Amino acid sequence: MERTGAKTISIDEAAAWLGISRNGAYEAAKRGEIPTIKIGRLLKVPVVPFERMLGLSVSTSAEAA
What we know:
Layout: E1 8-10, H1 11-18, H2 22-30, E2 37-39, E3 42-46, H3 47-54, H4 61-64
Antiparallel strand pairs: 1-3, 2-3
């Protein structure tokens, strides 16, 4: 996953990373299989838990220092 500094990504971006359809990603989020947070009417995927779920190494600026 490319780091842009964003703390969240859209469900569409998560779907692209997982190689599944947009509808499939929304269904997975509804089942709790993709970590999400709701901001108003927006459903966002927090990057750190998403990367952790995928088994990617997650580094923070504190660890890099």
